[in-house]
Amino acid sequence: ASEDDHVALPSAALVFNPSTHQSIYASFSEGIEHGGVAPFGTNNQNQLLSAARSRQVEVGAKADLATDFSLALAAFRIKKPLELITAENVFSRLGNAVHQGVELTAQGKISSEFSLIASVTAIHAQQEETGDENLDGKHVTNVPRFKSSLYADYAPKQLGGVHVNASWQYASSKAFSPDNKITVPGYHVVNIGTNYSTDLGGFRTTLRMNVDNLFDRRYWRDVTQSL
């Protein structure tokens, strides 16, 4: 779409509250995404693809299991144009990428000093309507089938405002090539940190120290077909 195009983007949502501590919802929306840029080495390198329309449907539920603890479950489906490098070495749109999945999230306080956020997501991202039997039905590149994360924060009262935190992230293996003949392995990453909030010269100040990738793991966070 050019800058002069006008596009209507509908969206709708419905929320039902069976009780004050529970909610069920459904939503539909359409969006416009920037087109990708043909990477170096392709026959049309640096070419910007036109903007593309995406559609998303989501249903879910949330429940407050305690005063400071909630659980949420959502199922989603996202459909958008598939961008890839073809066998002719041209970066272009070919068919659609359809992402379907479920996500479970828990967050809140386990005690007055300990809080956490945890999530688990399963994704089935499939290439459709490409017109190429070697690509149709294959997994979309750079999308793990499974990912999870855990963030914990501990603030013992005896340390007077000091917070100690840690996080863990996991992603399963991902396809590197559209035909799925090349994949990259999954990974685990652990981060730790601490922060302390105080007043310095009348200003509220937070001091932080973090160590990312604590165990110095080498991993593929993202993979593309770019050279």
Describe this entry's structure for a reader.
This protein has 227 residues and is mainly beta. 0% of the residues lie in helices and 59% in strands. The strands form two sheets. It has a ten-stranded antiparallel beta sheet, with no helix packed on it. It has a two-stranded antiparallel ribbon with strand order 9-10. Strand 11 and strand 12 form a beta hairpin. The protein is globular, with a radius of gyration of 22 Å. The model has no long low-confidence stretch (mean pLDDT 92).
Oligomeric composition of the shown chains = single chain
- Strands of the largest sheet, in order across it? 1-2-3-4-5-6-7-8-11-12
The tally of helices reads: 0
Please outline the major beta sheet.
Answer: 10 strands, antiparallel
What would you call the structural class? mainly beta
Question: What string gives the helices and strands in order?
Answer: EEEEEEEEEEEE
Taken as a percent bin, the fraction of beta residues is over 45%
- Helical coverage, percent range: under 10%
Name the descriptors.
single chain, 227 residues, mainly beta, ten-stranded antiparallel beta sheet, two-stranded antiparallel sheet
Q: Which helices and strands appear, and what pairs or packs with what?
A:
Layout: E1 11-19, E2 22-33, E3 52-66, E4 69-85, E5 91-109, E6 114-128, E7 146-154, E8 162-171, E9 174-175, E10 183-184, E11 187-200, E12 203-211
Antiparallel strand pairs: 1-2, 2-3, 3-4, 4-5, 5-6, 6-7, 7-8, 8-11, 9-10, 11-12
